[in-house]
Amino acid sequence: MEFFDNLPAMDLMRSEKMTFVQLIIPFESAHRAITYLGELGLLQFRDLNADRSPFQRTFVNQVKRCGEMSRKLRFFKDQISKASLVSSLHSETQSAVELEELEIQLAEHEHELNEMNANSEKLRQAYNELLEFKMVLQKAGGFLVSGKSPVVVEDRELDENIHSNGDYVDTASLLEKEMRPEVMEQSCVRFISGIICKSKVQIFERMLFRATRGNMLFNQAPADEDIVDPVTSEMVEKIVFVVFFSGEQARMKILKICEAFGANCYPVPEDITKQRQISQEVLSRLSEIETTLDAGYNHRNKALSSIELHLNKWMSMVRREKAIYDTLNMLNFDVTKKCVVGEGWCPIFAKAKIQEALQRATYDSNSQVGIIFHEMDAPESPPTFFRTNRFTNAFQEIVDAYGVAGYQEVNPAVYTVVTFPFLFAVMFGDWGHGICLLLGALVLIAQERKLTGQKLGSFMEMLFGGRYVLLLMSLFSIYCGLIYNEFFSVPFHIFGGSAYKCRDTSCSDAHSVGLIKYQDPYPFGVDPSWRGSRSELPFLNSLKMKMSILLGVVQMNLGIILSYFNARFFKSTLDIRFQFVPQMIFLNSLFGYLSLLIVIKWCTGSQADLYHVMIYMFLSPTDDLGENQLFWGQKPLQIILLFLALIAVPWMLFPKPFILRKLHLERFQGRSYQMLGTTEMDIDADKEPDSARQHHEEFNFSEVFVHQMIHSIEFVLGAVSNTASYLRLWALSLAHSELSTVFYEKVLLLAWGYDNLIIRLVGLAVFAFATAFILLMMETLSAFLHALRLHWVEFQNKFYHGDGYKFRPFSFSLLTEEED
């Protein structure tokens, strides 16, 4: 055992040692100290004001100010994105500004932008009205002219020419006159003209028809230009309409319907001369407003461009300030109200760095009193902190998704780095598909620097985060594919010739019948001659099923061995004697023995029926094995193993609860004169550091016994079900291989059998589509999820509690835009 104690500690094997610290910070140094600690990012603060609402805390006003500034910055960002301004790669350098100065600047910028937006919206509204009026004059004038006789039209054109050549002067602008629909002399028919959204035309016309009981004539024409909505900035299609009617009552109904549907009505005179004059005035006004709008947009874009140069820096500054004040709200004032008191967790290796940062904060703030930093007894279990890198982070996240390791508990991620991609590859083994996955992983790794700072979609973000997992999965898939000898389900003679050949000349072209073994076995993987033979499926089924059981028993044994290292680290000899030992005996007496039989059968080439051996080991252990005997002494060995398996169950169930009860009684009742710290539990507790010492709860024998009984039953039943669960390795590997074979033979080869280029191209396209979307996407996801289940359930439940919580230090680098 001394050998294990002398081994160097692994970074990922156990979480970093933590210590609980207290900080007493003078008020004048508090802000700077928290800033430096945020830059360092190695201290997790404990909320000392958890019983207070956010509005009862000390720095609530500062948090509100930061929230208001964040709102303004988001407003600026929305305005910049709506203006479609290209963001500059390098922000303009600016001298450091205080929060108060930044608040004033943001208020000025917001006021200026709001004024410009309001003016722009009013101008755009006026521009839209004039543009609509112009289109109504054009279209409605055409309706009115088309309704007259040709003689009247010619007379009007003559009058128009006379007026245009003479000294005709109107005393007032026709736009400023209140114009009403004229009464036509011949039939007393009135009309109302206007414009409406295209999507509302049909309902609008139907409503007019019903309101007037059909006593109206509705003409419409599409507008020549789309109108920009000033609120949404979207282009809206409009329809110009003219409604002819008779009577004042019908006029009132039509106007109310127009108002309800949001239709804008514009007066159109019947006189062509007046129409021409109004059109000219409208065009001149339109050009003036358009010039004003362009100037306003240019001015607004310049203002937004100047803001955009500093926007990222301002957002980062406000985000940091808000985080600082949120952290200060977690601290308490001391009795004198001159210092703030904070508590939190930090790794032991970070103590020197934290003390250095606090000393620097004291010096930079010109404080006469230094910051006190000292360790304390922990009120709770420490958080879990693993130092990971780009490669190990994804595997650690896979483990943390099941549950965060308890403090100093064995970390399964150390083994998951290898076992997870390997078990995936056992189910996905095909070195052709593995190469495709490898290319995808290499592309993601090559683009790592470019994609790291970008916002990706949920699927792409997950894929990019697991790029190194994908890399190892592809490499192991290539390895397992070489063992299975499958390249898109096609075998190749990569490592030499086959061990089988024809027994005579009559089967010179045979691939599956009449072959005999004539040389040593194929050096690596499955012999290519098995492909297409009548015994291919039974052979591969037997191989993969037995291999799955071997891999499962090995991984479950690894899990139980890790429980031993957990118990040894926490100095729990009860768990070693009454949990680890009986579990190892039970599992290996049954399924370890089955694995031994599989290996012996492979090595000897025996025809023994292992199903029969294992069944009758329980039903009639004393019967003669006959032809199922694999080695000498097998029968007495089976009886001994069966006896050990039966003994292991009560060994797990009964001793531990009664020993715990005895220790409890000795500590608190049975030996009142014995000094504390003499029992095994107390000696172990005294050796624990203060920051990691667990508080002993009240002992309840019935609860402990029921818990131990559940744990024992779960392990006994789980030993059977978990071993059977590893058969999914065989099932998914077989499914992947057969599905790949179907696509190759029934799609690609079938299409290639036709002497037609189009059919061949179609077959190739279908094969490529099936390979990419079914075999490379759906099968990859399926194998990934099954490998995940094998690790979470079959492997980790042997030793892993996962009842800890993550170390979440106060760090500016962990702040995200969502926290604005």
Description:
The chain has 24 helices and 13 strands. Helix 4 (99-146) runs antiparallel to helix 8 (272-328), helix 11 (413-428) packs across helix 15 (467-484) and helix 16 runs antiparallel to helix 23. The radius of gyration is 42 Å and the shape is extended. Mean pLDDT is 84; it is low at 147-187 and 670-696. It has helices at residues 2-6, 27-40, 60-82, 99-146, 150-165, 201-211, 248-260, 272-328, 351-364, 392-402, 413-428, 431-446, 448-452, 458-465, 467-484, 536-569, 573-604, 610-619, 634-653, 655-670, 680-687, 701-725, 728-752, 757-795, and strands spanning 18-26, 44-46, 190-197, 217-222, 227-228, 235-236, 238-245, 264-265, 332-333, 339-347, 372-375, 500-502, 515-517. By secondary structure, it is α+β, with helices and mostly antiparallel strands. The strands form 4 sheets. Strands 1, 2, 9, 10 and 11 form a 5-stranded antiparallel beta sheet that branches. It has a 4-stranded antiparallel beta sheet with strand order 4-7-3-8, with helices on both faces.
